């Protein structure tokens, strides 16, 4: 139990509750001393009162119980005996009437449950009585013989109920427990009341008072009026309190006196120390060097400035002569001052000498000396003061250097006062602006000839200077000659020693050159250098903007993918310079074909793209595509060449054909391929199956490359027949691809792709060689000689030395030139008339035959035709197929035949399929025919059979 009741202040926290000096030995003792006094007393009471009471009660109860059992036994025996005796006579007489009264009186006893009298004479129950309500628990049966004299005449049986005895014993126990409990409770209450009032409460009081003493609270008196032992203890405590109060009062008084003493002494010491420290601080912290020397010039003390100045430690200085640290040139002057002037006058004026640093460096100093005296006024030494002049001289040099930098830097520098009035400008400023300094100095910076946003910029500068003390940015100035130029200006403020801005310093660099190159870089990043059109990246941005606009307006856009047909041929034949010129010219024409708001870009090579940013229907895209076709159809006159270039255009519509740039471009590209496949020089709208076609083309291209390597091609030959004789006079070599998986593939499936991908040169060369070889082989086999016509592609014509190659083929195969005929389409010739004419001349001079294929489909003028040294004109199948039904085609075919005749050329009609066509051509005096009506293209062996037969083809 705590002595400090709840709510009472505890002792000073620094004073721990006192612990017993040592713990009593044995766990029982330790436990006993751990419990509170109240708990200990309760324990004692319980053990001292309750246990003996219970013990006594237990003995008492046992004795009473034994006596009750004894009594019951006695009573039972007595009742049995009385009844046995009383029944003798009635039993002897066999008179139940006489026996009944006694039986009834016995049954009145509440312990008797039943009585039964058995007659041995009659061998039956003589009398019987039962009280069933009394049968409560255990039953004790007592029997006794009934005798008359020596003869037993009957037997008595009595049942006694034992429960009554148990109930009485239980009541007895309960009474004992109640008695002991009451006795115990009363004892405990009485003991605790007495214990608390006489012992525990005063003890608590004593504890609180002791706590006051421990906290040095002596003011309140401890009042004890009882005469018992605790009262004595309380009074002793009160006496202790008074004693302590007196002692503490005295202690405090003494303490106060002592503190006054100490304070006074401290003040004196403080004053002493302070003056000494001030003197020392002055000595130590002085930036000038101070050292104390005796009258002989030996150093006694030196401050850190001297040590730093000379680069030595204190021990390297003390005891040495000051002259050891002075440059020898100055010894005499110094000696004069320190040993003559100072001792005589008490001081000397400043003079300049040089000190020697430990590393040998000479330090210019200004020196002076003051005589040091003792209390009696006698000279005891000299205060020597030296001031380092290096910094001042460095500062001077820095100033000179800064002035040089200021004047000679290539950046213009403008210094203004705090109100932005120009104080000075450097030479670079004058060079940069063309204004002399007298034109600038004294003016406000706002009066500087600048072109743009002067006032707003000054406000911005002022705001930044206030916030950060610096500003930098681009400004535009105007030179004296009126030229504007961009500058990069960095403005810093300079502060005076009070921290106020006193000047602004602006460093100005002319960035016109850098800006020009930045703009150039920007331009190169966005535009195609050759054509000036947006490049791929920039064009994508433009398309994305157009798509976003279309989304906002719920409108549509169109993307036109343009690829120039056979541009490679031009590039290869006429060189890259002409190719580049052509691309530039095409770009110009494309730009001219567009409305404002639409854009054209170059993706690379000969690929151009147009985005039509707002269209109401795909027809508008078709209109633009048509316009592009028309604009490009006009020949380009470049480097002395008249060039015709046609485009193939693929059109993708947003959003139907792609919802983003990549998809749109991909699909327009696929449509462009379709345009190429559809004969070039046209436009096609994208359809969903075109991509599959585009992939197919790619696949064909890669397979073609393999086919070239493995020579997977064969030639079939289609006879050309003289209309008058019906004899075979020639044959056209037509290529087929012996595809390992797809079988024989016709040229229509791969020649356009080979042309587009530049593979046609290798294929065409193979055809030339194979046709020449086969023709020679037939001749060697004795077959009638004929000319074999071979189709030439534009690339073959332009990319290589076709004359040299054919000469090689003829030489290798041994075929005479006159048995090889070259078919060149009209469109090839028209691509570059000048060089074609030259090549055809050369081929002709080699003895080769020349035919103009597909005649009538191109744009050849009669003037050009006159210049070609062709042998034959080949009327295109498209005209032949509709004769004689179509009057226009009849007229054209007739005109071509007449033209050939007038130019002295042979004429052959191709694609003759019907007898009517034959008859029409015969009537028009066409020389030769070629077509399914006569013979389809034949494999070499079958063609050989036809030649061998040598028979005229039956006339239809
Ligand atoms: N550069 C090269 N081009 C070649 C070569 N071999 C063929 N080709 C060109 O491929 C195109 C298709 O040729 P092909 O499928 O062989 O068709 C030729 C004939 O089979 C076909 N023809 C002939 N008569 C008839 C006819 O009565 N009806 C009809 N529907 N078609 C017929 O015409 C093609 C020959 O045409 P052309 O060359 O214009 O004389 C085709 O353009 C070939 O030029 C090659 O080695 N190199």
Q: How many separate domains?
A: 6
* Alpha plus pi helix count: 30
User: Into which percent range does the helicity of residues fall?
Assistant: 40-55%
Number of strands: 30
Residue stretches low in confidence (pLDDT < 50, at least 5 long) are 1-16
What separation lies between the terminal Cα atoms? 144 Å
Task: Give the overall pLDDT as a whole number.
Answer: 87
Mind telling me the C-alpha Rg?
Answer: 70 Å
Taking strands numbered 1, 2, ... along the chain, how are they ordered across the largest sheet? 22-23-25-26-27-28-29-30
Distinct small molecules bound, one entry per kind: ligand LFPHGCPZ
Q: SS-based structural class?
A: alpha+beta
**CATH evolutionary superfamily of the largest domain:** EAL domain
Q: Judging from the principal axes of the Cα atoms, what is the shape?
A: flat
From the 3D coordinates, which CATH architecture of the largest domain would you assign? Alpha-Beta Barrel
CATH fold-level assignment of the largest domain: TIM Barrel
Transmembrane segments: 40-61, 176-195
Coiled coil: 241-271
Domain PAS: 275-345, 398-468
Keywords: Coiled coil, Membrane, Transmembrane, Transmembrane helix
Structure description:
It is a single chain. By secondary structure, this protein is α+β, with helices and mostly antiparallel strands. The chain has 6 domains: 1-86 and 163-217, no CATH class; 95-161, no CATH class; 286-388, 2-Layer Sandwich (Beta-Lactamase), CATH 3.30.450.20; 413-514, Beta-Lactamase (2-Layer Sandwich), CATH 3.30.450; 525-688, Reverse transcriptase/Diguanylate cyclase domain (Alpha-Beta Plaits, 2-Layer Sandwich); 700-948, Alpha-Beta Barrel (TIM Barrel), CATH 3.20.20.450. 49% of the residues lie in helices and 22% in strands. The chain is built from 30 helices and 30 strands. The strands form 6 sheets. It has an 8-stranded mixed beta barrel, surrounded by 4 helices. Helix 5 (163-214) packs across helix 6, helix 15 packs across helix 16 and helix 18 (661-677) packs across helix 19 (690-710). It starts with 26 loop residues before the first helix and ends in a 7-residue tail after the last helix.
């Amino acid at each position: 139990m705590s002595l400090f009741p709840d709510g009472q202040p505890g002792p000073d926290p620094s004073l721990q509750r006192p612990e017993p000096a040592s713990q009593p030995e044995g766990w029982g003792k330790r436990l006993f001393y751990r419990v509170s006094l109240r708990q200990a007393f309760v324990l004692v009471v319980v053990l001292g009162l309750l246990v003996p009471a219970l013990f006594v009660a237990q003995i008492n109860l046992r004795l009473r119980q034994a006596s009750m059992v004894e009594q019951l036994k006695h009573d039972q025996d007595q009742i049995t005996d009385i009844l046995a005796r009383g029944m003798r006579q009635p039993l002897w007489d066999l008179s139940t009437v006489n026996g009944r009264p006694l039986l009834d009186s016995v049954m009145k006893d509440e312990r008797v449950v039943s009585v039964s009298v058995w007659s041995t004479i009659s061998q039956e129950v003589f009398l019987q009585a039962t009280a069933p309500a009394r049968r409560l628990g255990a039953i004790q049966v007592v029997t006794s013989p009934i005798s008359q004299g020596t003869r037993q005449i009957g037997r008595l049986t009595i049942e006694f109920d034992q429960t009554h005895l148990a109930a009485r014993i239980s009541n007895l126990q309960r009474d004992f427990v109640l008695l002991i409990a009451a006795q115990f409770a009363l004892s405990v209450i009485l003991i605790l009341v007495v214990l608390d009032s006489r012992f525990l409460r005063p003890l608590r009081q004593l504890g609180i008072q002791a706590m006051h003493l421990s906290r040095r609270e002596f003011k309140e008196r401890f009042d004890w009026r009882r005469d018992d032992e605790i009262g004595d203890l309380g009074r002793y405590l009160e006496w202790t309190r008074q004693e302590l109060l007196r002692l503490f009062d005295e202690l405090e008084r003494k303490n106060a006196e002592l503190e006054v003493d100490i304070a006074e002494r401290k003040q004196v010491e403080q004053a002493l120390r302070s003056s000494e420290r001030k003197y020392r601080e002055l000595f130590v912290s002085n930036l000038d060097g101070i050292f104390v020397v005796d009258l002989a010039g030996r150093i006694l003390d030196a401050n850190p400035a001297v040590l730093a100045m000379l680069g030595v430690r204190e021990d390297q200085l003390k005891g040495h002569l000051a002259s050891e640290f002075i440059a020898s040139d100055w010894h005499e002057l110094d000696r004069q001052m320190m040993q003559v002037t100072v001792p005589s006058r008490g001081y000397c004026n400043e003079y300049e000498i040089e000190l020697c640093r430990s590393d040998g460096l000479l330090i210019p100093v200004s020196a002076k000396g003051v005589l040091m005296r003792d209390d009696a006024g006698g000279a005891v030494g000299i205060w020597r003061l030296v001031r380092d002049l290096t910094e001042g001289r460095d500062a001077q040099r820095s100033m000179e250097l800064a002035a040089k930098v200021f004047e000679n830097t290539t950046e213009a520098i403008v210094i203004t006062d705090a109100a932005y009035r120009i104080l000075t400008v450097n030479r670079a400023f004058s060079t940069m602006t063309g204004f002399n300094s007298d034109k600038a100095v004294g003016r406000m910076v706002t009066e500087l000839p600048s072109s743009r946003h002067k006032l707003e910029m000054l406000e911005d500068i002022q705001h930044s200077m206030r916030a950060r003390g610096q500003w930098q940015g681009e400004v535009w100035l105007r030179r004296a000659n009126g030229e504007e130029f961009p500058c990069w200006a960095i403005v810093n403020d300079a502060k005076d020693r009070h921290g106020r801005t006193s000047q602004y310093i602006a460093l100005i660099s002319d960035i016109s050159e850098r800006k020009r190159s930045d703009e150039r870089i920007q331009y190169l990043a966005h535009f195609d250098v050759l054509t000036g059109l947006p490049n791929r990246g920039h064009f994508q941005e433009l398309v994305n903007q157009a798509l976003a606009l279309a989304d906002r307006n719920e409108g549509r856009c169109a993307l036109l993918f343009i690829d120039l047909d056979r541009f490679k041929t031009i590039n290869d034949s006429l060189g890259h310079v002409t190719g580049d010129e052509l691309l530039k010219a095409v770009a110009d024409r494309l730009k001219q074909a567009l409305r404002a708001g639409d854009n054209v870009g170059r993706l690379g090579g000969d690929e151009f793209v147009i985005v039509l940013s707002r269209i109401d229907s795909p027809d508008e895209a078709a209109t633009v595509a048509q316009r592009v076709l028309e604009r490009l159809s006009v020949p380009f006159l470049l480097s002395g060449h008249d060039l015709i270039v046609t485009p193939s255009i693929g059109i993708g519509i947003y959003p139907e054909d792609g919802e983003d740039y990549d998809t749109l471009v991909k699909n327009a590209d696929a449509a462009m391929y379709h345009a190429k496949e559809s004969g070039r020089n046209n436009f096609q709208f994208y359809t969903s199956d075109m991509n599959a076609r585009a992939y197919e083309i790619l696949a064909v291209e890669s397979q073609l490359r393999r086919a070239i390597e493995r020579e997977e091609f064969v030639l079939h030959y289609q006879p050309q027949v003289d209309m008058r004789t019906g004899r075979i006079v020639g044959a056209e070599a037509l290529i087929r691809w012996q595809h390992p998986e797809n079988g024989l593939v016709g040229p229509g499936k791969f020649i356009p792709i080979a042309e587009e991908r530049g593979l046609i040169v290798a294929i065409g060369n193979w055809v030339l060689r194979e046709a020449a070889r086969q023709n020679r082989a037939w001749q060697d086999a004795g077959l009638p000689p004929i000319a074999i016509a071979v189709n030439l592609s534009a690339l073959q014509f332009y990319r290589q030395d076709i004359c040299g190659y054919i000469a090689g083929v003829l030489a290798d195969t041994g075929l005479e030139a006159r048995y090889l005929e070259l078919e060149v389409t009209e469109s090839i010739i028209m691509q570059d008339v000048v060089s074609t004419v030259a090549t055809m001349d050369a081929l002709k001079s080699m003895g080769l035959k020349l035919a103009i294929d597909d005649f009538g489909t191109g744009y050849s003028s009669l003037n050009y035709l006159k210049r070609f040294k062709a042998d034959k004109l080949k009327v295109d199948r498209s005209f032949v197929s509709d004769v004689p039904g179509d009057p226009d085609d009849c007229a054209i075919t007739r005109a071509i035949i007449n033209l050939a005749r007038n130019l002295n050329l042979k004429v052959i009609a191709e694609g003759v399929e019907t007898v009517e066509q034959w008859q029409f051509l015969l009537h028009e005096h066409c020389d030769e025919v070629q077509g399914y009506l006569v013979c389809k293209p034949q494999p070499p062996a079958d063609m050989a059979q036809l030649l061998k037969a040598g028979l005229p083809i039956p006339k239809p």
